[in-house]
Amino acid sequence: MLASNIKEIRAHLPKHIQLVCVSKFHPAEMIAEAYALGERDFGESRAQELTTKVDVLPKDIRWHFIGPLQSNKVKYVVPHAYMIQSVESEKLLVEIEKQASKHQKIQKVLLEIHIAQETTKHGFSEEEVTQFFKEKQWEHYPHVEICGLMGIATLTDDSENTKKEFAKIHNIFDNIKKSTPLDSFTELSIGMSNDYSLAIDEGATIVRIGSAIFGQRDYSK
């Protein structure tokens, strides 16, 4: 099943779009199976789960942290994360800078933009992120490489609303890209299992797909 799921998704993904297989709440054995099929980018949302999986899986996996991240958990994530996609505040950037400096690494990140209607979603507002780049705030974080933006659309069956939200973040992304001198600012991570085709149409460069690959998650574990 997993092989056919990946094959199906790959058939619909343009070559320039990076697939992150969202492996959170799925066992290491399933990740190993996807790895054997050629996948290298996996997404996790809990620091403890990430560190447990890192210990038992191949070292060349690129781990993407995609969930809400508390400042006190950053020290567990930075040593292992290829990219932290869910940077929702400058407070978090301060801690990532501190931990990346300790580990003498440049940590790739995406700034998460709050585009959904749900108040439970996290992220910078359009005004906050625009101000961040206008004031060149990235200069305060020499051990952080800001690679682009990430967003999660409102959970809805209304595809027009989803397209509108993706178009909004794409517009924010384009405006920043035109005005910032950062060569690293190239990635737009939008789209999940139920809406990734809409995200591709609206300029995604990264999609994060979990249940369409691994099946439904068991949150009880």
Q: Give the neighbour order of strands across the main sheet.
A: 7-6-5-4-3-2-1-8
Derived structural class: alpha/beta
**Strand segment tally:** 8
Order of helices and strands: HEHEHEHEHEHEHEHEH
Total number of helices: 9
Q: How far apart lie the N and C ends?
A: 22 Å
Unreliable spans: none
Radius of gyration: 17 Å
Proportion of residues in β-strands: 15-25%
Mean pLDDT: 94
Query: Can you tell me the overall shape?
Result: globular
- The helical percent reads 25-40%
SSE map:
Blueprint: H1 2-12, E1 18-22, H2 28-36, E2 41-44, H3 47-56, E3 62-65, H4 74-77, E4 81-87, H5 90-102, E5 107-113, H6 126-134, E6 144-151, H7 159-179, E7 187-189, H8 196-201, E8 206-209, H9 211-214
Q: Which key terms come to mind for this protein?
A:
8 strands, alpha/beta, single chain, 8-stranded parallel beta sheet, 19% strand, 221 residues, 39% helix
